[in-house]
Amino acid sequence: MTQKTLPPPPSFLPSALRIMDLSIGEMLWSRRTVFMMLLVGLPVLLALFLRALVGLGAPILDQTRMTGAGIFGILIWLVYLRIVVPLLGVFYGTSLIADEVEDKTITYLFTRPIPKGAVLAGKYLAYLVCTVFVVLPSVMLVYLLIAPMGDSTLGGSFIDLVKDLVLLALGLAVYGAVFAFVGAKFKRPLLIGLVFIFGWEQVALTFPGYLRYYTVVYYVQALVPHAMPNDSALSMIQGIFRTTPSLATSLISLAVIWGLFLWIASWVVERKEYILEQ
């Protein structure tokens, strides 16, 4: 009587893609999706308000001495990169493993014949799909509402829009990797993440020296294709927060941060014993 041999377990990539497929639906129907929709909807409402003021004849463009494309650049820099992208990275990245532990479903995922690191990788890919395809349409709506104001030639601003979309996707990827590690490693990941983006990053950028090198926003802001008007107060604020490295340095640094934290997060998940509280 011949003994049947079990088929080999699936490899890392197919396992991660399978977990991604299962996780996308869960993320889209989770409570965090309501928060995400509200967060990306606020810039759209602001754009509608500004467009209505311009339509009513309010001298917004004259007072700020900029076109609609300039206002769009301010929204990208101050709203999306400084608030929306980091917050989405925190709320989703820290939940990739922490939510499974809190809901006591981590055991069911880890008993599957797949690498544990593939569970994190698949949920991370699901996070990227969900956030990118919600944030980018929001940016497109804001662009269509704001950029045409006071400017009939939008060729340059459209190129900046493409750069913005790539930049926001890059920011979501890097912040997601950082907070995926935080969620896999620590017990209170959401609190740690909020302290990081609203505490550490803001303080490190304002102090001279090497502290800013240990933030994500320092390298992300260097890639912003917009510049504030030289005579505006926003240019002074941007000058404080935007002592930027070169393009090559920023891209290499972000790639290193992304790869390092995603690898460490997978390594932690592979080796850590998650104790479920009763």
Short description:
The chain is mainly α. It has 12 helices and no strands. The longest helix has about 30 residues, at about 115-145.
Helix segment tally = 12
Helix content: over 70%
Which percent band covers the strand fraction? under 5%
Record field, number of beta strands: 0
Give the overall shape.
globular
Q: Provide the residue-averaged pLDDT.
A: 80
Uncertain stretches of 5 or more adjacent residues = none
Order of secondary-structure elements: HHHHHHHHHHHH
Task: Kindly report how far apart the N and C termini lie.
Answer: 46 Å
Largest β sheet strand count, sense and barrel closure = none
Tell me the Rg in angstroms: 21 Å
Describe it for me?
With about 280 residues, the chain is mostly helical. The protein has helices at about 10-30, 30-55, 60-65, 70-95, 95-100, 105-110, 115-145, 155-185, 190-205, 215-220, 235-240, 245-270. It starts with 11 loop residues before the first helix and ends in a 7-residue tail after the last helix.
Topology:
Blueprint: H1 12-28, H2 31-55, H3 60-64, H4 68-93, H5 95-102, H6 106-110, H7 116-146, H8 155-185, H9 189-206, H10 217-221, H11 233-241, H12 247-271
